[in-house]
Amino acid sequence: MDCDIELEIDAGSARGEYTVRVVRAPAGGHASGMFTLDVEGILERLPQLEATVLASAVAARRTMPVAEMAVREVGQQLFQALFTREVYGTYRASLGAAQHAGQQLRVVLRLSAPELATMPWETLFDPETETYLCQTEPLLRHVPAPDYNLNPLDVAPPLRILGIVASPRDLPSLDVTAEKDHLSRALAGPVSEGRVELVWAKSGTWDDVQSMLLAGPWHVVHFVGHGDYDSRTDEGRIALVGPDGRAAMVRAVRLMALLSVAAPRPRLVVLNSCSSGEMGQSDLFSGTASALVRSGIGAVAAMQFAISDYAAIAFAHGFYAAIANGRTVDEAARVGRISVMASPDGTLEWVTPALYVRGGTTQLFTLTGTPRAPASVESSTTAGTSGGQATGPAHASSPASPPGTGQDHAVPAQAAPVPTTQPQANAGQANAGQAMKRAQLRALYVQASAELRARRLEQAVELFDDLLTLEPGYRDATALRDKARHRLELDRTYREALKAEETEDWLAAADGFAAVQDDPGFPDAAVRRQDCERRQRISDLQGELRYHSSLGSWEAVLDVSAELATVDPDAADPDGLATAARAEIQKAKSKEPPPVETAEVPPASDDETPHGSYTAADLPVRPPRKKAPARANPAPSLQTGSALHPAPSVTKPEAPAGVPPSNAVLRGSKPGGSAPVPAGGSAPPLRTPLLWGGVALIVAGGLGACFAVYFLWLDDNYWYESGGDGSLRIVYGLVAPLGYLLLAVAGLPDRTTMARVVMAGVVVSGALFGLSGLTETVDPTTVIAGFVHAGFGLWAGILALRSRRSEPFGWLLLWPTVTVPLVWVQDKGVFLESWYRTHAYFVLIQLLVLCASGIGFAVAARRLRASEKGQEHEQAG
Predict the structure, then answer these.
(1) Are residues 795 and 748 in the same domain?
(2) Sequence-ordered strand ranges (E) for 63-187
(3) Which segments carry the region annotation Disordered (predicted)?
């Protein structure tokens, strides 16, 4: 053939390295290259590939797009390794030259390295044109052997085929009748036209096969059975039937000796792997095929995977029809592949046949004369319908007769067909169908399990769905599918957490990583969660620091900066705000006069100096008290008293020179008119954060009450069940905790460390209670968080009631928190049984209490502001 591109592939200098060289090409040149190929990795994938190819014959939804992925991946890997840049250029140029000559380009692979014989080269996939090579051009494997330029064998039709079925009893059983019937149906057309004659051996024993070979001539030997590859001898084997009915493994060299008894020697051998055996015991004929070609057989067509009944019939029909019409064996193999592609739609079993050729020609036979009608219609019918052995002409000789010429069709007498009743034939076909179904189900199961193990979860779910559609309840497929779906959901959660981490949504990222951290498939989830929580803490503290800086609370800025330094020293001075706060404090200290130490004045007796006339020397000495740094711009909000207990008006006493004012005014006072800061953390709350904290609680309670009313009486479309529950999560998980956080910033319940810890517990437990969500069932996390929130609220209220300046705020802190467990009171007094939108009456009550508390804080902040203005007016006067 003039349009051949022959590629010689040999082992390189290192393991896994190979060389490729263009021996001949229509475009000319001798391009070469070197590539690496993971042969062991592809060999490990062969069982999965076999399952994928066989499963593609199953008519099930969505199977094909998933199944073809594995075949395409392997084919593209082989193509990109084989066709290096220079070799690919020659290949593309040769395609153009062949098309210009009006011929097809035949791709010949000369496989010099033995391990390459087991590679599925029939899957070669060109990613540029998105086509498989063997679908558009003939593809064959050339086995290195002495090229003696054997001339094609002249054959006067019919082309005689000897069929052999071997089914040892210790290997997966074959339905012998069905296997014979499959090939007989495939050849029914050529047999009826007199182009082909099919004769079956009585059994698969060595003696029977030898007797049939002696009674030739035979042009083709078609073997159906089991085979494997012996890695110890680096040689393929087939399984004949021994005297005891068990498998007799015959090495390729012994099989070649057996075939050599035929005169003339068969030019073509077809090795067809069975499809009714249990999957997992692959039928590897690659070693046997190459060994037969190397020993002298002109061409061998082998099935590198198990093949379905339909594909075997379709390939045999197209392959033998092309041979009988004088086509070359490589073109016949391509025609057979095209026959397999006919149906079912999208099957991949055209990959299964592999063609091995010896010598420089693929024209095995030259058909001379015209086909003649079969000598016996009864014989042809018997061979075509019953799967038995077709007899030759009526004058066939006995087994002892010597082989005749091409027109002498001597057949042993014992080869006469045994009539088969119709019920037996139907039973055989039914058994064959059941066996085929079992094999296909097993193939789908193996492929789906492989995709699950490789964590290609979407493909695994689709394949398990297909399997369960065909056979509900198949083995543990339901459990494995659910496992794949669960892993798929975890993967989706993990990806969303990664995306949230990239967008610096630390809270969402931490929640996502926390959901998957217990799965061993996400070993970094726990570390990522901790890092996100740390970053969220840093973000919260930096926000608080910026808030204090905007109010000029420089001491608070430094407190937050110190806490930030314990979390991340590099984040303790965002935008230089902590440095600016230190500068402001130092600036205020430089302008501040020396502090005057004061002390409590004992009650004056009648003979002592009247009130207000003491000198510094008359006052008892007390240990100096640590004073807070003065602010550069002292806020007028730090005044004595509270909104509910306004401080009495203070006027400047007119004291003599050198006499300090009354200690009631001077104790802890600072220049600039700032209010005193009493000991024990009992300073009045800051007005601005107090006001905004109340506003946040008003919004949370009022908005939540509106949602509750809507859920109870207006929600006809069940909006709450389809995403409306997010409204209450926002109220309880974000808005209300923000209000409590602002109250803590304002100084409630007092300014002690314990009070800050208690308020932090109120904020965190409230956020956890809200974000956990109020679902139809009672979630333990939500219930526990609700009671913890109530406990911290009760604690905060008690601390406020014990503080003289914060006592009025104690009840406002206590009621909205201790009433949170009311949400678990259900209709008719049931407690902690379930939670549902129609039982949200107590939620409505709790939200109204929350709103009322916020109103109380807002009113208190307004009164505090009015009191401060009055004091400023009096001081100015």
Answers:
(1) yes
(2) 106-111, 125-126, 131-132, 139-142, 153-155, 159-165
(3) 367-412, 585-681
Virtual CA dihedral for 298, 304, 309, 314, nearest 10 degrees? Answer: -50
Looking at this protein, which amino acid is placed at residue 666? L
Q: Is the pLDDT of residue 361 over 60?
A: yes
Q: Do both 128 and 211 map to the same domain?
A: no
Same domain, 104 and 209: no
Q: How many CB atoms lie within 10 A of CB 644?
A: 15
Q: What pLDDT was estimated at residue 628? A: 45
Across residues 385-405, what is the average pLDDT? 37
What is the average pLDDT across 505-526? 90
In this prediction, residue 286 carries a pLDDT of 57
Asked if residue 221 and residue 81 are part of one domain, the reply reads no
How many domains does the chain fold into?
Answer: 5
Q: Is residue 420 a part of any domain in this protein?
A: no
Instruction: Check if the beta carbon of residue 121 is closer than 8 Å to that of residue 143.
Output: no
Cα–Cα distance for residue pair 484/505, rounded to 1 Å:
28
Range of the domain at 303: 153-366+378-389
Lowest mean pLDDT of 72-76, 305-309, 347-351, name the range. Answer: 305-309
Q: Are residues 705 and 812 in the same domain?
A: yes
Rounded CA separation 104/280 (Å): 38
Of the candidates 626, 631, 636, the residue with the CA atom closest to the CA atom of residue 673: 636
Query: Which residues contact residue 207 at a Cβ distance below 8 angstroms, ignoring those fewer than 6 apart?
Result: none
Q: Which of 510, 521, 442, 517 is nearest to 483 (CA)?
A: 521
Count of other CB atoms within 10 angstroms of residue 846: 26
Nearest alpha-carbon partner for 733 in 781, 801, 688, 669:
781
Phi, psi of 186 (to 5 degrees): -65, -35
Kindly write down the DSSP assignment for every residue of 712-744, as one continuous string. Answer: III-SS-TGGGTTHHHHHHIIIIIHHHHHHHHH
Q: With 90 as the cut, is the pLDDT of residue 449 above it?
A: no
Instruction: Tell me the percentage of the chain whose pLDDT exceeds 70.
Output: 73
CA-nearest of 142, 179, 302 to 236 is: 302
What pLDDT, on a 0 to 100 scale, did the predictor assign at position 346?
62
Is the CB of residue 439 less than 8 Å from the CB of residue 467? no
**pTM to 2 decimals?**
0.46
DSSP 823: G
Beta bridge partners of 154: 366
Mean pLDDT to the nearest integer, 6-34:
86
Report which DSSP code applies to 825: B
How far is CA 538 from each of CA 506, 544, 741, rounded to the nearest angstrom? 10, 10, 16
pLDDT > 80? residue 236: no
CA angle 747, 748, 754 (to 5 degrees): 95
Q: CA-CA distances (angstroms) from residue 158 to 196, 379, 700?
A: 5, 14, 93
Cα(562)–Cα(821) distance, rounded to whole angstroms?
Answer: 36
Asked whether residue 351 falls in the same domain as residue 209, the answer is yes
Of the candidates 223, 164, 172, 120, the residue with the CA atom closest to the CA atom of residue 439 = 172
673 inside domain:
no
Cα of first residue to Cα of last residue in the chain, in angstroms, is 118
> In whole angstroms, what is the distance from residue 164 CA to residue 616 CA?
126
The answer to whether 336 and 134 have CB atoms below 8 angstroms apart is no
pLDDT at 500: 92
In a domain, 225, yes or no: yes
Sign for the pseudo-dihedral over CA of 142, 143, 147, 153: negative
Q: Of 565, 591, 617, which residue constitutes the final position of a domain?
A: 591
- One domain for residues 177 and 135: no
Q: How does DSSP classify residue 855?
A: H
pLDDT-wise least confident of 303-317, 580-594, 648-662:
648-662
276, 173: one domain: yes
Residue holding tokens 């009992």? Answer: 682
Q: Is residue 611 part of a domain?
A: no
Record the tokens describing residue 287, joined without a space.
């070693």
Tokens standing for 562? 């110190």
Final residue belonging to a domain, choices 83, 111, 142: 142
